[in-house]
Amino acid sequence: MLPVAVDVGSHGPNFHTEVALDDAVDLLAAAARAYHAAGLTTVCDPQVTRRELTTYREAQATRRLGVRVSCMLLSHQLEEVQAIGLAGPFGDETLRIHGMKFYADGSLIGGTAAFSEPYGERGEFLGSTYWTAEQLSALIREAHQAGWRVGIHSQGDRAIGMSLDAIEAALRLRPRDDARPRLEHAGYPTPEQVGRMRDLGVITVNQPSYLYDSGDEFLRRLGQRPIGCNRCGRSWRRGSGSC
Q1: Which terminal CB of the chain, N or C, has fewer other CB atoms within 10 Å?
Q2: Burial class of residue 127 in the structure, from the number of CB atoms within 10 Å of its CB (0-12 exposed, 13-18 middle, 19+ buried)
Q3: What is the CATH number of domain 104-243?
């Protein structure tokens, strides 16, 4: 299987391998069996393009889906779905689209997570963002006004700040009780940012397994900063965490 890139512009990384539809559905069915073995019956796919949705629909039609799937469309599709008036939640109890996924910055171990202070073994990284603060805010506002729930990949504290500013501006313009905005990963928030998450009703989708799987890389890139990574305990106490 050869890796291929799907061009989504500045909307995030999006790499696939060439797989026939029937093979993709077979792989999905195998994944469902693994989920069942772990006691999981519902999953969220936070980066869905036409390819993934086609696979999920085929699996559902042929009764091989196996688990309930909640999809988040990748944000490069915003204009296309707006053109037909689509917004989540949309679907049924086994397969639905519930939100839209955005990217603010990159990865902690890749040196592309956006921090307010330099990091790296020689202080060589500040990270990078996919959008300016103004561009991200405009995208989140557009999606929110169209009725979408949003999830924003945000790892470093600078990216988290941008994301919270964008969410706050969108909620101020159009308050919604069902907004349930998400920060995907929320890798390194400041204590003040954790408080803002609570006040804005932001859900953090932390992944503390990263600390086990990639802890040595975190220490190499971040020094003592991993102590502040994935602050699940603090987030739970403040009412925003969802590890």
Answers
A1: N
A2: buried
A3: 3.20.20.140
Angstrom distance (rounded) from CA 30 to CA 24: 10
Residue 234 scores a pLDDT above 70:
no
**HSE of 87 in the Cβ direction (CA atoms, 13 Å)?**
12
Which H helix or E strand runs over 217?
helix 215-222
Please, which pLDDT band fits residue 214 given cuts at 50, 70 and 90?
confident
CA 45 to chain centre: 9
Instruction: Summarize pLDDT for 100-149 with one digit per residue, the tens.
Output: 999 999 988 888 999 998 888 888 888 999 999 999 999 999 999 999 99
Give, in degrees to the nearest 5, the angle at Cα 59 between 53 and 62: 140
| N residues, the chain | 243
The pair of three-digit structure tokens given for residue 204, joined into one six-digit string:
């953090």
Q: Is there a contact between 99 and 88 (Cβ–Cβ < 8 Å)?
A: yes
Q: Is the pTM of this model over 0.90?
A: no
Indicate the domain borders of the chain: 1-99, 104-243
Render pLDDT for 13-62 as a digit per residue (tens, 0 to 9): 877 777 899 999 999 999 999 999 999 999 999 999 998 999 999 999 99
Cα–Cα distance for residue pair 91/181, rounded to 1 Å: 20
